[in-house]
Amino acid sequence: HQNVQAEQNMLVAAHLAGRAFSRSYVGYVHAVSHSLSGQYDMPHGLTNAILLPIVLELYGPKAYKKLARLAVAAGLGEAGESKETLARRFNQAVYDLNARLGIPDHIEGILEEDIDRLASFADKEANPLYPVPVLWGREQLKTIYREAVKPHGG
Known about the structure:
This protein is an all-alpha fold. It has 7 helices and no strands. 28% of the residues are buried. The mean pLDDT is 91.
């Protein structure tokens, strides 16, 4: 509490981050990340980074429109290309960025016997609080944990 300007800037940054978070489809990424981080003592940011492209893939066609817009904005394609092609290209770019940063494309050590409990935690956190393109229940959330242990990214 020695720099009022720094505190004000942090308040603005936190507000903007919260607005972006609530509009960006990362609800299930964040909820699953919380349970994994707590259960397996992993850094929350790392699990978020690993899970992001996995969850975006699992959203499938429901996320293509927004992911296609992101792909065009990121210079990964042209607006006339199919939304699916652009969405897949964007998702691959996330995997590629993670790889360049040394972030793994999967999480080792998730135990099958933990998945039901972890999915229950994620379900309670995410539903109905987070805006997402597809509403999933506990059974669908289990898929994220199972996909997270598989190598991805091509």
